[in-house]
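Revision sheet: structure tokens.
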Amino acid sequence: MKERQHLWLGPEATAFEEPCEACLAAHESLAAELCVVAGTLRRDADVGFTTCRRGHRVVVHRIARSLARAAV
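Predicted:
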């Protein structure tokens, strides 16, 4: 099992809702909609931490604004 998961948000995103990979791996019989981690990240924050309903740790990263502009 992974110790921590990492989610990546775009430069302007403030909310996320993604599957918890650890839940899906550990509980194959659970429906995917039950294995969701959701939350928010302030627009001025570059990193945040949260846990899913089953206690799996998730690190939320924001893609650097300068990197996002360079990709366009």
